[in-house]
Amino acid sequence: MENDQMWAYQYDENNIYFCPVEIIYIEDDDGNVTRIIPPNSTEVSPGDLVHAKWTGAEWIESASTEYIEALEAVDSEDVSDGAKALKAVADIVETMVRGGA
């Protein structure tokens, strides 16, 4: 049996993207191939969403604007400025702990 490696995108109990998982192909004695997509998975890619959430039909962005802006601020800062980066990370963690993300 020869099948290309294919991926599905698994989400957790809150429908938040968790990780890529391999689609499994099982061949029976008669040569019939069954394609198995793991539970809580979809073949639809979450793309470049920051905090992707599965609606049952599509992925949507569930991260707050503040969370995304904090990430962008960290990305745009000079790498040598560690204090600002640490503050941005602390702000993100605080937002996540308070349930804002």
Spatial shape: elongated
Number of helices: 2
Percent of sequence in beta strands: 25-35%
Helix-residue proportion:
25-40%
Described by strand count, sense and barrel closure, the largest sheet is:
3 strands, antiparallel
Q: Major sheet: order of its strands?
A: 2-1-5
For the secondary structure, the number of strands is 7
The overall average pLDDT, rounded, is 86
How would you describe the overall organization of this protein?
- With 101 residues, the chain is an alpha+beta fold.
- It folds into 2 domains: 7-61, no CATH class; 65-97.
- It has 2 helices and 7 strands, in the order βββββββαα.
- It has helices at residues 65-76, 82-97, and strands spanning 7-11, 17-22, 24-27, 33-36, 41-42, 52-54, 59-61.
- The strands form 3 sheets. The chain has a 3-stranded antiparallel sheet, with no helix packed on it. A two-stranded antiparallel sheet has the order 3-4. It has a two-stranded antiparallel sheet with strand order 6-7.
- Strand 1 (7-11) and strand 2 (17-22) form a beta hairpin.
- Helix 1 (65-76) runs antiparallel to helix 2.
- The longest helix is centred in the C-terminal third of the chain and has 16 residues, at 82-97.
- The chain is elongated.
- It starts with 6 loop residues before the first strand and ends with a helix.
- The mean pLDDT is 86.
